[in-house]
Design a protein that fits this description.
335 residues; alpha+beta; Uridine Diphospho-n-acetylenolpyruvylglucosamine Reductase, domain 2; Uridine Diphospho-n-acetylenolpyruvylglucosamine Reductase, domain 3; 3 domains; four-stranded mixed β-sheet; 23% helix
Length: 335
């Protein structure tokens, strides 16, 4: 008989530390259990939860929250140059990065300290310091919610782009990711240190993947609040893409506007800069606020309600729209 918990608080399960309730809750430790639970509860609305690090709860949930907690890593294939590893969705992302560093497997050292689970990583194609998950992703196993059959989905079908994939777009809600296959590199590693702050940090010394991870951890810890001490979900918004003509127009008023080249002849603008210009950094709205060191991060300063975080986000979005004519999209899922 499967065990449910009833009427529990989701506060320990979201890094924003928002207090909300779920009517039913179940921690899933394997696929058989997952299928069984979905079969039994066909008519109950359900939600999937991983590390809870990219989610903003704005109200209580009358359905079933499924915490994906299946664990395990296995090496599927090894050559002299590469290794293919399958990791279960419920594994913690950063612990997997550390495991790779200990085995000297390269490819995800720049993604150290990103909060969340392995299963959630492909959904928004996590990225940092010049590297995206897509660069090491091979395939994933996912449960099709309609058929309750497992499918293998290969990289070419995931349509990865900046903080996005099919799992966030047209296939949203169709799959539950069960495990992810990564292709990692053995030495000699290709080292990615082109990203601004990393490049300055190293000034092109000879390096290894362990030193890169240590630098990324140090930079992240200096800028991004630790969710264990100050609730947050990392970047709340995506960095917007704008056309060259729009950029030219803005540059007349804001000559210092920073940018990075992006896909399709567009330019990527740091949302943090826009929010900072508007004076939001360090401000408070109810229990919510904008982090004092990184304007892109919304924080839970004092028992914030999900709705207060959302109001603050909406205020920032309309201010950015009015001043820069730019639409800021949220990176965090709002529920
Ligand atoms: N800036 C400001 N004010 C601030 C912070 C930054 O003006 O308060 C400007 C500076 O010009 C700075 C630029 O914004 O050079 C970029 O800042 P940063 O290097 O901190 O990166 P970001 O664009 O704010 C992105 C990711 C982060 C990732 C870092 C490093 C997105 C939405 N965010 O942030 O990802 O760690 O680059 O690669 O793409 C996350 O997704 O949760 C996340 C933290």
């Amino acid at each position: 008989m499967l065990r449910f918990k009833e009427n529990i608080s989701l506060k320990p399960y979201n890094t924003f530390g928002i207090e909300t309730q779920t009517k039913y809750f179940y921690e899933v430790s394997n696929t058989i259990e997952l299928k069984k639970i979905l079969e039994i509860n066909k008519n109950l609305p359900f939600r999937i939860l991983g590390g809870g690090s990219n989610i903003l709860f704005t109200e209580d949930f009358e359905g079933l929250t499924l915490l994906i907690a299946n664990k395990g890593k296995s090496v599927l294939k090894e050559t002299s140059k590469t290794v293919t590893v399958e990791v279960q969705a419920g594994e913690n992302w950063h612990e997997f990065v550390i495991w790779c560093l200990n085995h000297n497997y390269g490819g995800i050292e720049n993604l150290a300290l990103i909060p969340g689970s392995v299963g959630a990583a492909p959904i928004q194609n996590i990225g940092a310091y010049g590297v995206e998950l897509a660069s090491v992703f091979k395939s994933c196993r996912a449960l099709n919610i309609k058929t309750l059959k497992e499918e293998v989905i290969f990289k070419k079908d995931c349509e990865f782009s900046y903080r996005s994939s099919i799992f966030k777009n047209h296939q949203k809600g169709r799959y539950i990711i069960i495990s992810v296959c990564f292709q990692l590199k053995k030495p000699p590693h290709h080292l990615n240190i082109d990203y601004g702050t990393l490049n300055t940090y190293f000034e092109r010394k000879t390096l290894n993947i362990q030193e890169i991870a240590a630098a990324v951890i140090e930079i992240r810890e200096s800028k991004l609040p630790n969710p264990k001490t100050l609730g947050n979900c990392g970047s709340f918004f995506k960095n917007p893409l704008i056309s060259k003509s729009h950029f030219k127009l803005l540059k007349e008023t804001y000559p210092e506007l920073p940018f990075y080249p992006a896909y399709d002849k567009q330019l990527k603008i740091p949302a943090a800069w826009l929010i900072d210009q508007l004076g939001f950094k360090g401000t408070q709205h109810g229990g919510a606020g904008v982090h004092k060191d990184q304007a892109l991060v919304l924080v839970n300063l004092n028992a914030a309600k999900g709705k207060e975080v959302l109001e603050l986000a909406r205020k920032i979005q309309s201010s950015v729209k009015n001043t820069f004519n730019i639409n800021l999209e949220t990176e965090v899922n709002i529920l």
